[in-house]
Amino acid sequence: QVQLVESGGGLVQTGGSLRLSCAASVPMLSVDIMGWYRQAPGKQRELVTSITSAGTTNYADSVKGRFTISRDNSKNTLYLQMNSLKPEDTAVYYCNLRRHHAVEYSDYWGQGTQVTVSS
Q: CA-to-CA distance for 28 and 93, rounded, in angstroms?
């Protein structure tokens, strides 16, 4: 059973920085993609950024140049460095692990961590 535990959220002023962490209970496999999603009140959950086992990253246009995803395989931990934060970044941030199988995949989610950016 895969478990993901996020930490690092909080309240920050506009222009500030936060780093989120996501500790996984299992090592990342070559078929895995890990990512960060966020959900603001009244909005759908959206993909913020993702990283493959090979290190290929993908970012939503709204966070390019401000957010950086990384991982430490030795610690089974995923990170999200968020700089130049804006009020519109306020949301609950969720860590995700998508494990691909032969013809399908399984999604695992953390419990979420609140990020609030004050103006």
A: 20
Please spell the DSSP secondary structure of the chain, one letter per residue: ---EEEE--EEEETT--EEEEEEESSPPPTTEEEEEEEE-TTS--EEEEEEETT--EEE-TTTTTTEEEEEEGGGTEEEEEE-S--GGG-EEEEEEEEEE-SS-EEEEE---EEEEEE-
Q: How many Å apart are CA 75 and CA 115, to the nearest integer?
A: 23
Mean pLDDT per 10-residue section of the chain, whose length is 119 residues: 94 98 92 96 97 95 98 93 98 96 92 97
Quick check: 78 and 69 in contact, CB under 8 A? Answer: yes
Predicted confidence at residue 95, as pLDDT, reads: 98
Rounded Cα distance, 92 and 64, in Å: 19
